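User: Sequence in, structure out. Go.
Assistant: Echoing your sequence, followed by the structure tokens.
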Amino acid sequence: MFISREDITTPLVACLCILGISLSQLPRLQKLLISKENTSLESLQKNLEKENLRLNLLEKFPSFSYENVIADWTYIDFLQYFGDNPVRDKTGYSLSPEYFEVILGRDPRFLAAYLGLSISTSLYAGMPEKTIGLIENGLKSLSPTVPNKSYYVWRYKGTDELLFLGKSQAAKESFLQAANWANVQTDQESKKAAFISAKTAEFLSNNPDSKFARIAGWTMVLQNNVDVKTRKRAIREIENLGGKVVINAEGFPVINLPEKD
């Protein structure tokens, strides 16, 4: 059996092109990491404009069946972007949804990416509508069993709808869907998620405007594997609503609710 030259060169050229797009950013990243305190805001904004153009190119670039590779590399780029606190303090997080346009557009079953989307775009960039839109598009490619524990995507959606949009009815429906999808699974984590999601939906039916519902939402944020800054924000929001967060001997947060709603 003979393999044509085209069969070999096409994927090779595709990989080299994609790799070239990413590698071409290394000097830019290194430059940002050096003497950030002396970098002007104007210069940082220009770098963001270049990064935005690169992401737009990646979104439209032919994948040649390397969708997951592009998604993974872009996610690594996002982690560098999101974790660069000195620069983000100056320029904000406005590019966050652009990364996930690429990531979830290429691999809508990339479960971990949905948590990054919710935190970065809703919580830090202040664009929950954009987060919900991307999640809704992604859900079209998901099912209760693919990927495993996909019910978390419905939980992220419900949490954003509750906390950032104040849409308790939409949040209730999202948590009901999370419960339905989680009930398909048989492991203990999924059973617990199904129970909590169903109870949250029930609570929202009876108390759509309750601050307890918002405390429950921030508690779900706190229970996720989030960064220190997000953890502090969740604790602050819970305590502003009258709750009290205590870290137990095992290092897990325990929420003491206020006496009255």
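User: And one key feature?
Assistant: Strands lie at 244-247, 253-256.
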